[in-house]
Structure formats: structure tokens, C-alpha cells
Write a structure and sequence with these properties.
single chain; 458 residues; alpha+beta; 23 helices; 9% strand; elongated
Length: 458
């Protein structure tokens, strides 16, 4: 109990960040603050469990008099704060991405899955509460979102507070400290005299968790029967409600999001299927692909949120090194005043000569051609004889590499520099590495362009 108390108390006074996507929407609404309705803002908040927790904490964690009401409705909380003060406050609020990235990329990827799970819980809880003719659906929605803090907060702690990252967080105790409404705390925690609403809510939770591994778990049928009894429906009706919610919520996922929705199991037919543990036989190649996907997602996200240049380049180099396994990586900055390329970001083995390298651009060579328009080159044994004579003398003398990839980085129509990578020494670069090298270079160009536009508009 002492460790649980320590992990819980660590969050008593610590502010919670919100998702970058949430802040982007709030910032957009701030430009038309006089026309924004509280219901529009509530729709944004209710997609983000951390945002919901932070807002309800803000309005409830205060000295209360005898007539002070507990607030469980997000829309009511916004009305209490005021639309314009709300927009002013949260359009500049700290974001989860700025807190976790780039160091906590793995935790951030897992956290995105839990955010999706929170959104699904809320949608199902709302639909079931409507079918029960629940007069206070907002309480059930809030409880569904807050419930996922038990998984989200430990993930955040891995980056922010490693001392408590392996310890459980007592969510009911935390909400009680923040003075959340007792009815919400009871739904999240344990109720001594369970009500039909509580029974329905608690039956929904294991169903959605077990659906992560398939719909054929016998406990799912048991919980569906409990839900059907509370609602006065057939089990098939309850199952149809769940399936509709899962499919609708899955369709809201971005096109580039990992497909972790339990909707993937709905098409499977009854029969002998392997258990999840047997089906998941991890291979090193698959793990490598997972790391590459994570690193590329982080780079893409950095572009969307307008990350500074040094962070963008750090993420690009990590994607090439950790995701593709390239051993020597460098970004050569185009210095227009000197008309040359100077190395700025260098990582890998045997980089002494690379760090000091300056490539003049007065004469025509391979790199001057690459800087004329966005283009890439894959130097390999098949085209070595064709391209080696076109390499700048300074490059050949310092590196002597005859197996590498390079691509020019542009912002709009202006060259910024050149991204270079090789597999170490004269080791060959594979086609897989080259194709993804081009994708990472393109993501880098887009991220730098987005950052440039933000600075220009600011």
C-alpha cells in the first residue's frame, strides 16, 4: 500500500498535459472565440482523457462552500470557466508530445493506444447509458475516460518520474484528492451497494479489454449476459451496440495510425483459433519494422506540431540509425553565403573526417546536381563506375565510401542541405533501407517546411 500511495501522491499537485491534437483544435477555435459554443469545446475535451481530467480537476479542486456544486459535466465545467478564458488558458497548455518526445517514443506509442481505448470506452458507455435512459450520461462518460488514467499515468511516469513508473496509481484516491464528484469516484472505484448503472459500467470494462485478443473468450459472453439483463435486452442487441461503436470509433483513426482496434477480430469466424500468446511470435525483423514505424511517426508528428530544427534533425537521424540500422549519418547544411556544404549533424562510427568536411559548390559534381531540385542517389556496386567520377574530391578523400545514400532537403523551392547515410565502411545499403531513407528525408523536408511557415506567420 505504501508504494501505491507514493505513486498516487506524486500526481497530487502535478499538472496534466493535453494531446497536441486537442491544443491545435482549441488554438483554431481561439481565432473565432466570439462564435465558439461550449458544446464545441466539450467535443474536443471528451476525445482526450488527460484533457478531461485536467479540466474537471481545475473546476473541482477548490475550496467549496455549502452551496458549491460538484461538476462532472465537461460542458458545465467550460461554462464555469468561461469560453474565452478557457480558450486563452488551454490554447497555450503544455502538450503530451512536448513532454514525452523525443525520449519517450515507445511510451507515447502505447499511450496513443490507450487514448483510443478511452475514446471507445466513452462512446460505448454513452450509448449504453442512453439505452438505460440515464439522466446523467455525462457522469458515465467522465468515469469511462478517467478510468484509463490507471494505464496512462504510469506510462507518463516512465519518462517524467521513473522512480514511481513501476508502481500502481490508485485512481479513486487521486480523484478524491482532486475533489471529483463522489458519483464519478464510485464508478471508477468500488461501490458497496452496486446499482444497475454501476453493474452495467463494470461489465462493459472487461468486455472491451478482452476484445483486444478476440471475441471468443467465454467471459465476454458472461459479461454480455449481465449487460443484457440490466438493459432488458437480448445478448445479440448488446453485441450489435458494441460492434457499431467499435467500427465507428475505428473509422475515426487517422490513415497513418497503427491498427490496434479490436475491430480487426470482428470478421473472424467461429472455430479453432490459436491463442494470442501463440499467434504472436516476435521476430527481430518485425521488431525492427516496429521501431522504424515509431521513429517515422515521431518525425511526422514533430512536423505537425512545428518542432524546432534541432529536434526535427535529431528525430530524422534516430529514424535512420535505430529504424534502418544505418551506421554513419550526417546532415550537410547549405551555406549560401559561402556556396558550400558544411556538416552540422553527424552520428555514427569513424566520423572524424566527416565532421570536418566542407564541400565547395563552385564546380559541378554529384552534390551540386542534387541541390538543384529534391532528388536522391543510391550509390552501389551496380552504378559505382558511373557515379564515382562525379563525387567531389573532398568527399572521396575524407570518406572513401563507395556505398551510400543521399538526398537533398528542400523547404519550398529552396535547398536547405543534404542528408547522407551509409552502412559503415563499404558495406552495401539495401533497397529496403534506400526506399525508407527517401521517405524519412521527405518527412524531414515537410517538418522543416512546416516549422518555417509557423515562424513566418508568427
Amino acid at each position: 500500500m505504501a508504494t501505491v500511495a507514493a505513486a498516487t501522491s506524486a500526481w497530487f499537485a502535478k499538472p496534466l498535459p493535453i494531446m497536441q491534437a486537442s491544443r491545435n483544435q482549441i488554438a483554431g477555435m481561439a481565432k473565432r472565440a466570439d462564435r465558439v459554443k461550449p458544446a464545441e469545446l466539450a467535443d474536443v475535451v471528451l476525445q482526450d482523457p488527460l484533457f478531461t481530467a485536467q479540466l474537471l480537476r481545475l473546476v473541482n479542486d477548490r475550496v467549496k462552500g455549502g452551496l458549491t456544486a460538484d461538476i462532472a459535466s465537461v460542458e458545465s465545467a467550460i461554462l464555469l470557466v468561461g469560453v474565452e478564458p478557457f480558450l486563452e488558458r488551454f490554447s497555450r497548455h503544455a502538450t503530451l508530445e512536448s513532454v514525452l518526445l523525443p525520449d519517450g517514443q515507445q511510451e507515447y506509442a502505447l499511450l496513443q493506444k490507450w487514448v483510443f481505448h478511452a475514446q471507445l470506452l466513452r462512446r460505448v458507455a454513452r450509448d449504453l447509458a442512453d439505452q438505460r435512459y440515464d439522466a446523467k450520461v455525462h457522469e458515465v462518460q467522465a468515469a469511462a475516460l478517467l478510468l484509463t488514467l490507471r494505464a496512462i499515468l504510469p506510462l507518463m511516469a516512465k519518462v517524467l518520474d521513473p522512480q514511481h513508473s513501476q508502481q500502481a496509481v490508485d485512481i479513486p484516491a487521486l480523484l478524491q484528492h482532486w475533489q471529483f464528484p463522489p458519483v464519478v469516484i464510485e464508478l471508477v472505484g468500488e461501490m458497496t451497494a452496486p446499482t444497475p448503472r454501476y453493474v452495467l459500467f463494470k461489465a462493459m470494462i472487461p468486455v472491451l479489454e478482452k476484445l483486444e485478443n478476440g471475441w471468443w473468450d467465454p467471459d465476454i459472453q458472461s459479461q454480455l449476459a449481465t449487460m443484457a439483463t440490466v438493459l432488458g435486452q437480448e445478448i445479440g442487441e448488446v453485441w450489435n451496440t458494441l460492434c457499431k461503436c467499435i467500427v465507428r470509433q475505428t473509422r475515426r483513426l487517422p490513415a497513418n495510425a497503427p491498427f490496434y482496434s479490436s475491430a480487426r477480430w470482428l470478421v473472424m469466424q467461429p472455430g479453432e483459433w490459436p491463442q494470442a500468446a501463440q499467434a504472436a511470435a516476435p521476430a527481430s525483423a518485425e521488431q525492427g519494422k516496429d521501431i522504424l514505424v515509431e521513429r517515422m511517426q515521431a518525425l511526422h508528428l514533430a512536423g505537425l506540431q512545428g518542432a524546432p530544427t534541432n529536434q526535427v534533425m535529431s528525430l530524422a537521424i534516430r529514424a535512420l540509425a535505430e529504424g534502418l540500422g544505418l551506421r554513419r549519418i550526417a546532415f550537410a547544411l547549405f551555406v549560401a553565403a559561402e556556396n558550400n556544404l558544411r556538416m552540422r549533424y553527424v552520428q555514427g562510427e569513424h566520423t572524424e573526417g566527416l565532421r570536418q568536411l566542407v564541400i565547395p559548390l563552385q564546380e559541378q559534381h554529384l552534390f551540386t546536381r542534387l541541390l538543384q531540385k529534391p532528388a536522391s542517389i543510391w550509390l552501389n556496386s551496380g552504378n559505382l563506375a558511373q557515379y564515382v567520377p562525379l563525387l567531389p574530391i573532398q568527399f572521396s578523400e575524407q570518406l572513401g565510401a563507395d556505398q551510400f545514400v543521399a538526398m537533398s532537403i528542400f523547404v519550398s523551392d529552396k535547398p536547405v542541405g543534404l542528408l547522407y547515410a551509409d552502412a559503415g565502411g563499404n558495406q552495401p545499403v539495401s533497397d529496403f533501407q534506400y526506399q525508407h531513407f527517401k521517405q524519412i528525408s521527405t518527412l524531414t523536408s515537410r517538418a522543416l517546411a512546416h516549422n518555417a511557415r509557423r515562424r513566418h506567420t508568427a
